[in-house]
Amino acid sequence: MFAAYANQVSNTTLLANAGYLVSVVLFMLGIMRMGKVKTARSGNQLAGGAMLLAMVAQFVEMGHINPVWIIVGLVIGGTIGLVSAIKVGMTEMPEMVALFNGSGGLASALVALAAYMYLDVPGTPLMSASMGGADPSIVNGLAVMLSILIGGVTFTGSLIAFGKLSGKVNGSPIMLPGRHVMNGALLLLSLGGTILVTFTTGGLPGAGIVVAVTVMALILGVMLVIPIGGGDMPVVISLLNSYSGIGAAMAGFAINSQVLIVSGSLVGAAGLILTQIMCKAMNRSLANVLFGGFGAEPTDGGKGGGADEYTNVKAADAEEAAMILEDVESLIIVPGYGMAVSQAQHLVHELGDLMEERGCQVRYAIHPVAGRMPGHMNVLLAEASVPYEQLFELDQINNEFKNTDAVIVIGANDVVNPDAVDKKDSPLYGMPVLNVWEARTCFVIKRSLSPGFAKVKNPLFEADNTYMLFGDGRKAVEEMIKALKEG
Fold first, then answer.
1. I need a surface site. Which of 27, 142, 341, 344 has the fewest CB within 10 A?
2. What's the rounded Cα separation, in Å, for the pair 399 and 409?
3. What is the gyration radius of the CA atoms in the chain, in angstroms?
């Protein structure tokens, strides 16, 4: 039976299918290895190799190709990627990831639009149109329109996320009146247009509906993300990453590309899982993130976490902190976005090494939503060559704070707020946080007493065992290192 089947399939098709199969396996292994900091780099390389192999297999299957446009695309895309990788700073990685998600969504939408235009604006509905050399299929027709819809939403939504992360767009939720009605109308009209083009409408009227759905998808992407505060961007980035994968899978159905279907599905599923992890880390539902307007300016006038709300804050300088650190036997460092902004990760590692030389046990506590994207702190510390064995997730280290001599919090706020544990009327209540206040001594390096994205007061700053080191994170750590060496 297999011999008879092989005789019916050309060697070119067999070779292409073998390439697809290997690339899918490499994609799966790559995503699996990205789940751990220690293997993430090799996982990324495997995924990149899988993508290259999938492209080669696609060209092999096509047979007759024009290499000029392929080379032009590779040169332009490769140059943009190389320049971006060299120029982007570590603090700008969340913005870069948002742009990557948007690029994936745009690519899926363009593939679907190209598939539609390839049919020379069909005189029949998409369900009767042949795509990718296959027989006409309702699945292909629906996939074309859904890829345009999902890709468009992902593209503009990612651009807004980029703007909020980079400060080009107001990071607070922008709550337009009647936004839920407008979003619902845009979604229903887009889905209605999808059904019309797929089942009933062809020719120029169908092309007009395709353009309308594309425009509505682009508007919907903006409308869905502007009400979400900057503090929720880790969840939004994860969700948009999932959207980009789903859009790619739809594009795969549109052009009958098995490898695009599988790889897009993998990315979509991984993004949804990560989104759920992020929501769990904030003790909030996805619906609350998308529709809750979390991070809006407080309206009660008394819970904004302003400096005037603190009455018992003890400030210390680097020399005083060094005097205490000289005698500690265990230290946990909690990084936050302030470390990223000040580019202090290398100095933080140097401080950790210096403490280890003094016989102190040093560990790093990583909160899932510290920073502006999933794994932000892991990336920064890995760049500074902090040993993977010293990095601990929240659930691994939270019980250790009560047995720790000292904690240094650098630039984190809401993820170390004790109100999340014991104040039921706090918007943070129930959110898993790092119990840094249980340590014998806690140092908080922060520019001021300004609140985090939750816009609430942090009682940690007033705790009896907390010392505030006000100033730039990099400078504060540098001064602590100097004082320890001199001491």
1. 341
2. 17
3. 26
Residue 63 lies in a domain: no
List, in order, residues 6 or more apart from 206 with CB less than 8 Å away.
121, 122, 125, 126, 196, 197
Clarify whether 414 is annotated catalytic: yes
Those residues with Cβ within 8 angstroms of residue 424's Cβ, 6 or more apart along the chain or in another chain: none
Cβ(334)–Cβ(374) below 8 Å: no
Decide if 19 is inside a domain.
Answer: no
Q: What CATH number corresponds to the domain at position 344?
A: 3.40.50.1220
Number of H helices, E strands in the chain: 18, 6
Burial class of residue 124 in the structure, from the number of CB atoms within 10 Å of its CB (0-12 exposed, 13-18 middle, 19+ buried): middle
- Do 200 and 278 belong together in one domain? yes
Residue 12 lies in a domain: no
CA 367: distance to chain centroid? 15
Check whether 302 has a pLDDT greater than 50.
no
Largest distance between two CA atoms of the chain: 84
- Nearest C-alpha neighbor of 243 from the set 143, 44, 139, 102: 102
Output DSSP code: residue 438.
G
Order of strands across the sheet that contains 361-366? 391-393, 361-366, 330-335, 406-410, 441-446, 466-470
Contact yes or no for 360/398 (Cβ under 8 A): no
pLDDT tens by residue, 238-267 = 889 999 999 999 999 888 888 889 889 988
Can you give 75-123 as a three-state secondary structure string? HHHHHHHHHHHHHCCHHHHHHHHHHHHHHHHHHHHHHHHHHHHHCCCCC
**In this structure, what DSSP letter does residue 432 have?**
-
Residue 218: the pLDDT is: 96
Q: Is 272 within 8 Å of 235 (Cβ atoms)?
A: no
Q: Which helix (H) or strand (E) holds 470?
A: strand 466-470
Catalytically annotated residue among 232, 405, 414, 472: 414
Residue 280: which pLDDT band, with cuts at 50, 70 and 90? confident
Question: Do 206 and 330 belong together in one domain?
Answer: no
Residues 258 and 329 grouped into a single domain: no
Neighbouring-strand partners of residue 407 = 332, 442
Name every residue whose Cβ is closer than 8 Å to that of residue 59 and which is 6 or more positions away in sequence. 65, 70
- Domain range for residue 357? 307-486
- From residue 2, give the alpha-carbon distance in Å to each of 16, 19, 192: 18, 19, 45
Residues 319, 468, single domain; the answer is: yes
What mean pLDDT is predicted for residues 44-54? Answer: 88
**Token digits for 64?**
């007759």
